[in-house]
């Protein structure tokens, strides 16, 4: 994932970069150990399934081209790169021929939003709903400008900041009223890589809920300090002690829901405000017997702006997770 450089320059303004040398990987040689790629190399695979095998073994999803046809003399495959050694960009975004919407909750995300929308457009054909909680930095005004510029970008203005949970619930309600078949959660700060969106949608063919996971083989975090890693690991361990280890990344916020699952969840009764919202919805999905799958991602800490995770969210998690456990006992 990009670090330390301007995300806007990397993802929106393609710079001159040396040609990519592709390592073609087929089913027959996938058992070979992965070799570290040089700065001008990338993998090319014929399908998403083989890409997932490579990623689970440590390959970077940003450096994998998915092309059903071989190139001649290892040349152009329809992908380019924004800079040497950086993420690949397909010639056109993946179109799954489904009605998909990406819900982006924002609060003071002006510095990220302008770059994120065109970045998403490079990788996936989908509508985007920006849910802004009356950001004082002008994020809402920028969202309106983007909506006027791009017909697939929509804006839902909320009067005040109430937390991540209410923002997502408002976005889900808006999406369900408009019959989208897939509804995606995504942070607005580039913690979740836009190039992983097609992988998320593809995996939804066999799952009701797909979670981009930091804690399955191939997943991980980047640019986190020791305290951030400690809090995240402790949080997921705490949840697992009460709710089980069926899910490895309970708090992950990069997700794809099938419409049918959300309609069964009785979202009007969800009370979680902060990041525990993610735990509650995953727990509800399991209790409904939904097929939940985890997709390895590399989570990169934000470069612009400040994290919204605070002690209030941690305290909410400490209190609400045991309640979910007791509710589960009562429902047996």
List the helices and strands and how they pair.
Blueprint: H1 7-11, E1 21-24, E2 41-45, H2 48-56, E3 64-66, E4 79-81, E5 88-90, E6 100-106, H3 110-123, E7 127-132, H4 139-149, E8 153-157, H5 164-176, E9 182-185, H6 197-203, E10 209-213, E11 220-222, H7 226-243, E12 255-258, H8 259-264, H9 276-287, E13 292-296, E14 298-300, H10 311-330
Parallel strand pairs: 1-2, 2-3, 6-7, 6-9, 7-8, 10-13, 11-14
Antiparallel strand pairs: 4-5, 9-12, 10-12
Helix pairs in contact: 3-4, 7-10, 9-10
Question: Can you describe what's shown?
Answer:
This protein has 332 residues and is of the alpha/beta class. The chain has 2 domains: 7-90, no CATH class; 100-330, Spore Coat Polysaccharide Biosynthesis Protein SpsA, Chain A, CATH 3.90.550. The chain is built from 10 helices and 14 strands. The chain has helices spanning 7-11, 48-56, 110-123, 139-149, 164-176, 197-203, 226-243, 259-264, 276-287, 311-330; strands spanning 21-24, 41-45, 64-66, 79-81, 88-90, 100-106, 127-132, 153-157, 182-185, 209-213, 220-222, 255-258, 292-296, 298-300. Helix 7 runs parallel beside helix 10.
């Amino acid at each position: 994932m990009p670090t330390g450089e301007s995300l806007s320059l990397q993802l929106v303004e393609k710079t001159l970069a040396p040609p990519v040398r592709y390592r073609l990987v087929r089913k027959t040689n996938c058992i070979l150990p992965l070799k570290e790629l040089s700065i001008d190399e990338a993998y090319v695979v014929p399908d998403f399934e083989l890409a997932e095998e490579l990623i689970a073994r440590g390959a970077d999803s940003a450096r994998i081209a998915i092309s059903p046809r071989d190139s001649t003399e290892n040349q152009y495959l329809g992908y380019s790169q924004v800079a040497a050694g950086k993420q690949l960009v397909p010639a056109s975004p993946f179109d799954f021929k489904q009605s998909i919407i990406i819900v982006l909750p924002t609060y003071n995300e002006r510095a990220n939003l302008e770059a994120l929308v065109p970045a998403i457009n490079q990788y996936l054909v989908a509508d985007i709903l920006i849910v802004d909680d009356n950001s004082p930095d002008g994020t809402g005004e920028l969202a309106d400008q983007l909506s006027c510029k791009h017909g697939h970008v929509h804006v839902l203005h909320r009067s005040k900041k109430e937390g991540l949970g209410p923002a997502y619930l408002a976005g889900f309600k808006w999406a369900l009223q408009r019959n989208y078949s897939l509804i995606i959660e995504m942070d607005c700060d580039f913690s979740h890589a836009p190039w992983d969106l097609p992988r998320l949608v593809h995996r939804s063919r066999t799952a009701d809920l797909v979670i981009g996971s930091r804690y399955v083989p191939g997943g991980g975090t980047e640019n986190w300090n020791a305290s951030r890693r400690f809090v995240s690991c402790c949080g997921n361990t705490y949840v697992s002690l009460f709710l089980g280890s069926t899910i490895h990344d309970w708090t992950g916020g990069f997700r794809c829901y099938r419409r049918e699952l959300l309609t069964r969840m009785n979202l009007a009764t969800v009370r979680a405000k902060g990041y525990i919202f993610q735990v509650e919805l995953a727990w509800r999905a399991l209790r409904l017997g939904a097929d939940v799958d985890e997709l390895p991602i590399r989570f990169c800490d934000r470069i612009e702006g400040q994290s919204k995770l605070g002690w209030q969210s941690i305290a909410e998690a400490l209190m609400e997770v045991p309640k979910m456990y007791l509710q589960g006992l009562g429902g047996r």
